Amino acid sequence: MHLTRRTFALASAAAAAATPAAAFDGRKPIVIAHRGASGERPEHTRAAYLLAIEEGADFIEPDLVVTQDGHLIVRHENEISGTTDVASHPEFAGRKTAKIIDGQRIEGWFTEDFTLLELKTLRARERLPALRPASARFDGLDAIPTFQEVVDLARQQSACCGRPIGIYPEMKHPAYFASIHLPIERRLAEALKRNDLDSVHALVFVQSFEPESLRNFQAMSQAKLVQLVGADRPEMVSPEGLRRIASYAHGVGPDWSLVLPTAEGALAAPSTLISDARALGLQVHPWTVRAENQFLPPALRRGKSPGAHGDAEVVFKALYAAGVNGVFSDFPGLAVKARG
């Protein structure tokens, strides 16, 4: 079976009334593969996305940054020394520099200083090799994907698997990219239109930490929008903060600790975030549940190694019981299993 762009878009719309992956269907919460199955393969690689889909993820998440020649590519940050082998390329040694990104001084190599052709000569590697040595064994195998390649992969895998696979792109540092005349919003809106995915019914969520970026995007696209919220911004998910979000977004993506606080090292009762959001018609998609002890409350850790897996299933099940509409995870297979 081959899906064209048009039939892929129509399949996405039909799925909105037919499958657990559907947006707003009120049934099973969606599982969003955070940068792919990034706990098991180097993040944002074809291998990570394919494994996530094999494990049952409903959506795959590409983080978007921009190249010097204006292409959308998929990296967690525009600084790429931690996720590629750029430092081992002598031809790019002179591109190392320091920049102020969102108020922080960062040193390294930046996507906006490379053309797409140049970036395609690099290979991806595990960002947390000490914590995830099994994933690091796949270093050097994959190139940096473009956004279009991720859309195409989702389309191809939807056909192969017989179920729709959604995409959940995040616009990274949109204010910074706008300041250097490489705005992400317009490029992403145009890409969704080219792929017949510019619809509230398509299996697409567009996310950002920057409210102004989402408001700008709202004027360019009909896609569903999700406001990301860090643990250090609890005021954004207060009743008043959620009312502001509801004026431009379809959902909120909070750090999962804003849904499930901890007390004395263990999970406490859920906050009112979900009921407050639901009253405003907002979906809630918390991020990011990881399996390693380093990312879990003390009561859920197993053994002494930071990289050993603790009892993440408790977190998944507590989030599902609290009524979330979806959950981000580096280990989508665990999220699917816990969902049942």
Automatic annotation (TrEMBL):
Its EC number is 3.1.4.46. It comes from the Bacteria. CDD domains: GDPD_ScGlpQ1_like (cd08602). Keywords: Glycerol metabolism, Hydrolase, Signal. Residues 1-23 form the signal peptide. It catalyses: a sn-glycero-3-phosphodiester + H2O = an alcohol + sn-glycerol 3-phosphate + H(+). This is glycerophosphodiester phosphodiesterase. It comes from Phenylobacterium koreense.
